[in-house]
């Protein structure tokens, strides 16, 4: 099964459109959060990922800013402005859909247990990270937020960050019983 793993679109619908054909070839599309803010047409990003039948929707920090019960006054001035501008551009259906996104999703493909989150807090020490990874119960942790592609291995466990679509990055992962291949894409 081929997974396309995306994160941090930040409203850049033109970037998303440029890879739509490649994404449709994946068996599953996993979105790790931060779909909105910054871009000109946040609704276009939502519509495109919906048309591609995205399988996993994770709420990122900037998506959470758009939720009904989020107090934007707690944000710094720039983030507050971005949140208010994005919210003003969005249609009510999209805003309602965001409310239902989860902050994490766990599932299995073959014998591989996968945890999808937006921001996976890493520690400063390798032993601390290893303990955190093992305590998650997942073989593969997929996370975004940093906009930096990364792959960290701890024996038979992995953390993968696909980078940011808004910066021209995503990752393809092939899983049958276990992880067969990982391909970081720059576009």
From TrEMBL:
Enzyme Commission designation: 3.1.4.-
Cofactor(s) needed for function: a divalent metal cation
Database matches in Pfam families: Metallophos_2
A GO term for molecular function: phosphatase activity
GO CC annotations on file: cytoplasm
Residues annotated as domain Calcineurin-like phosphoesterase: 1-173
Keyword Metal-binding: yes
Entry-linked InterPro entries: Ap4A_hydrolase, Calcineurin-like_PHP_lpxH, Metallo-depent_PP-like, Phosphodiesterase_MJ0936/Vps29
EC top class, as a word: hydrolase
Entries under SUPFAM superfamilies matching the protein: Metallo-dependent phosphatases
Keywords for this protein: Metal-binding
NCBIfam families hit by this protein: yfcE (TIGR00040)
Family membership noted in the UniProt record: Belongs to the metallophosphoesterase superfamily. YfcE family.
PANTHER family in the record: BLL5683 PROTEIN, METALLOPHOSPHOESTERASE
Stated name of the protein: Phosphoesterase
Source organism (scientific name): Holdemania massiliensis
């Amino acid at each position: 099964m081929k997974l396309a793993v995306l994160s941090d679109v930040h409203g850049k619908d033109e970037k998303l459109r440029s890879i739509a054909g490649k994404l449709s070839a994946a068996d599953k599309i996993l979105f790790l959060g931060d779909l909105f803010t910054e871009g000109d047409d946040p609704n276009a990003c939502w519509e495109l990922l919906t048309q591609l039948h995205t399988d996993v929707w994770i709420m990122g920090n900037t998506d959470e800013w758009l939720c009904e019960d989020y107090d934007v006054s707690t944000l710094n001035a720039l983030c507050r402005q971005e949140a208010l501008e994005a919210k003003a551009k969005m249609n009510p259906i999209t805003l309602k859909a965001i409310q239902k996104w989860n902050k994490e999703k766990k599932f299995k493909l073959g014998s591989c247990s996968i945890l999808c989150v937006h921001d996976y807090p890493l520690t400063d020490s390798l032993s601390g990270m290893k303990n955190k990874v093992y305590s998650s119960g997942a073989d593969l942790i997929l996370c975004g937020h940093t906009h930096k592609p990364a792959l960290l291995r701890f024996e038979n466990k992995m953390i993968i960050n696909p980078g940011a679509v808004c910066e021209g990055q995503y990752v393809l992962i092939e899983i049958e019983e276990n992880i067969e291949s990982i391909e970081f894409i720059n576009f």
